[in-house]
């Protein structure tokens, strides 16, 4: 008698539990490398998160952790999120690649999405945007606008994503201004306003009158504004608080469509491992408004580049192109394949300096 | 490689800016240690000053008011340290460390809503003829007020130590608090005043980072400058002018390494990144050859009954 009672109540409890699970909202977690208020990279990912909330309302619950250092600490945070019952976790920085893969092995039922990486598994997808298409537009404007012919570039880490951006910007700046020269400083951080500000100041002191940045804070914009006559571009986010000058345009990452689609896939049970790499055409890379500080011809040239990139007529890496050491890379009219781009570890001909190893 | 791209005049001007936060914090700590107190909480007081100054400047629109608030906030945090060590007789090393940890946490909390905001800009000195002079102009007459304040403060501290009775009493308290007490000086009161001064200076240094050098607020943005300030005081053997020299040296190497990178010098970046610390330590070790000058009562608590 007692045993049957116990079994019945256990069965009832289980029934209740499954019923409760069915009503459970889908839990989506986000791991950020900077603060949500950085005005750049993390800010845009958080906008994507808010878009997911707006789209699904009560059916989703989102959680996020900001300022997560790349490395062991990330593994701890991702594990914690998975333990707390997240169904889908977006890890939004390159350095979370190995932690994401490690945690994913331990939680086969949780889906993971890693931004800008290249390692996938049964429950880990990767996604990234073709930022280099935006760099092509920036390079075009930069080449037109520089008077000193020196363009400063603040790199974060020497990884393929950043090197692609440098190459793309250089190729397109050179196209409109053959005398252009790039000065590259590696900050070895994604987000450190003090360091970014120092780097920008140094570049300006060495004659750069256009600064491109691949770091996430607005500190270089502030440094350029203080200098007075230096052009900058918003990185990852519009950074429109510095428009119309020094910020003359920007690359805007738009993750919201992707985040909504992937959350929907988890809800429907149709989620599969994918490798997404979208550009201007699919709307993942946006070009912020080109301000009136840009001369009309430069503006038109930039818009033309953007349009041809968007409809696929033109590829940002189209031959003839040589590598830095002069060896041929792409023949006339040939375009780069995604494999080479994903692992890009060389400068194109004309850029001075070495990539730190 | 193109070293001609480095403009020495601009280099000196920007190293002075990079050195000022360090100078302000270190000169404050020099006074504290001269009074016989070891406050390891410089980093914590700096970051509190950075956020308090930033928040005040943003809300009021006046950077100067921000600096005042930063000094008050730094001093307010140091009151905690003064209470612990001067009245509760707590261990100075432990109290100082906890002050740093507390300051870092509290500042992150206070700064939540100030991330990514632009502060009002501080005007630069612009004297019609002098600021336009070719070499001397940008180096000597083209900076913001706080930079000159830092140098003036160094001179003032040096003069007070060397020429005034106040400086003599302060040093007496730091060398032998029992003797100073026997002479009728109020050891605890003098030490608390020194601690407050140190806190205010550290606060100013922090605000210089968040309001002028960057200018922006981020969590943990002092990034270890407080610790370097502490080391600087020891290596400068508690002499104000050597503190200034050390601060400029550190600022100089920081700026030079970025300049070399931009000029395309092929040295691995990691070496360049650690060079400021290495060179500062090296030169200051040489400077500190005379070890006689450590205040004899440094780090020892005073109680009148003992």
What this model shows, in words?
The complex is a heterodimer of chains A (357) and B (306). Chain A has 357 residues and is of the alpha/beta class. Chain A has two domains: 22-129 and 255-278, Response regulator (Rossmann fold, 3-Layer(aba) Sandwich); 131-253 and 284-342, 3-Layer(aba) Sandwich (Rossmann fold). Helix content of chain A is 41%, strand content 19%. Chain A is built from eleven helices and 14 strands. In chain A, the strands form three sheets. Chain A has a six-stranded parallel sheet with strand order 2-1-3-4-5-11, with helices on both faces. In chain A, strand 3 (88-91), helix 4 (97-106) and strand 4 (111-115) form a beta-alpha-beta unit. In chain A, helix 5 runs antiparallel to helix 10. The model of chain A is unreliable at 15-22 (pLDDT under 50). Chain B is an all-alpha fold and 306 residues long. Chain B has a single domain (3-287), classed as Orthogonal Bundle (ABC transporter involved in vitamin B12 uptake, BtuC). Helix content of chain B is 69%, strand content 0%. Chain B is built from twelve helices and no strands. The longest helix of chain B has 27 residues, at 8-34. The mean pLDDT of chain B is 87. Classes of the chains: A alpha/beta (357), B mainly alpha (306). The A-B interface holds A 35-39, 43, 67, 152, 183-186, 188, 191-194, 197-199, 201-203, 205-207, 217-219, 222, 226, 241, 352-354, 356-357 and B 5-7, 10-11, 14, 18, 115-116, 118, 121, 209, 213-216, 218-219, 221, 223, 254-255, 258-259, 261-264, 266, 268-269, 273.
List the helices and strands and how they pair.
The complex is a heterodimer of chains A (357) and B (306).
Chain A: H1 2-23, E1 26-31, H2 41-56, E2 60-65, H3 72-83, E3 88-91, H4 97-106, E4 111-115, E5 124-129, H5 131-145, E6 150-155, H6 160-176, E7 181-186, H7 193-205, E8 210-213, H8 219-227, E9 231-234, E10 247-253, H9 256-268, E11 275-278, E12 285-288, H10 296-310, E13 321-322, E14 328-330, H11 338-342
Parallel strand pairs in A: 1-2, 1-3, 3-4, 4-5, 5-11, 6-7, 6-8, 8-9, 9-10
Antiparallel strand pairs in A: 10-12, 13-14
Helix pairs in contact in A: 2-9, 3-4, 5-6, 5-10, 7-8
Chain B: H1 8-34, H2 42-60, H3 63-87, H4 92-110, H5 136-140, H6 145-163, H7 165-175, H8 177-182, H9 187-213, H10 225-235, H11 240-262, H12 269-287
Helix pairs in contact in B: 1-6, 1-9, 1-10, 1-11, 2-3, 2-4, 2-9, 2-10, 3-4, 3-9, 6-7, 6-11, 11-12
